Amino acid sequence: MSRTVAIDIDACIGCEACAEEFPEVFSMGPADLPQVYNPEGVDEEKIEEIMDLCPANCIIWEDD
């Protein structure tokens, strides 16, 4: 089973850490909240790094 990175917008505090750290995956969208625009922009190991850095723990894996 594969998985895709996603953001729990309800939990997000808009700190922009994900977009600053990995702009090849995340960008800031409407209402200054991040969005995943390129889920394959970096490997899963790098995604795990930003998950650990996220102060709101709102970057998650969703099953495809």
Describe the structure.
It is a single chain. The chain is α+β, with helices and mostly antiparallel strands. It has a single domain, classed as Alpha-Beta Plaits (2-Layer Sandwich), CATH 3.30.70.20. Helix content is 23%, strand content 25%. The protein has helices spanning 17-21, 44-53; strands at 3-7, 26-28, 34-36, 59-63. It has a two-stranded antiparallel ribbon. The chain has a two-stranded antiparallel sheet with strand order 2-3. The longest helix has 10 residues, at 44-53. The mean pLDDT is 94.
Largest sheet: 2 strands, antiparallel
Class by alpha and beta content:
alpha+beta
**Helix residue percentage:** 10-25%
Number of strands: 4
Mean pLDDT: 94
Number of domains: 1
The best one-word shape is globular
Uncertain residue segments: none
CATH topology: Alpha-Beta Plaits
Count the DSSP helices: 2
> In CATH, what is the class?
Alpha Beta
Percent of residues in beta strands: 25-35%
Any guess at the CATH architecture?
2-Layer Sandwich
Nearest-angstrom radius of gyration?
Answer: 11 Å
The side-by-side strand order for the widest beta sheet comes to: 1-4
Order of helices and strands: EHEEHE
Distance between the termini: 7 Å
